[in-house]
Amino acid sequence: MTAKILIVTGDAAESLEVLYPYQRLREEGYDVHVAAPARKQLRFVVHDFEPGFDTYTEKPGYTWPADLAFAEVDAGEYAALVIPGGRAPEYLRNDPELRKILKSFFDADKPVAQICHGPLLTAAVDGLRGRRVTAYPALEPDMQSAGAAFQDTEVVVDGTLVSSRAWPDHSGWMREFLKVLRAKAPVT
Question: Could you say which DSSP state residue 49 is in?
Answer without folding.
Answer: -
